[in-house]
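User: structure tokens for this one?
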Amino acid sequence: MTTSPIRAAVPSYLEGSYNPRRRQSWLGNLSFTDYEQQLMTQQEASA
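Assistant:
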């Protein structure tokens, strides 16, 4: 078996099982989505 079918299956697996709204204590109890949005806002403000 080559890695091509596995590589093709990873994005759909992550979409189905990964919860981007789950809060992370190491991000100050922000979700990855909220943290990324906050980071982008800070970068835009400093530009």
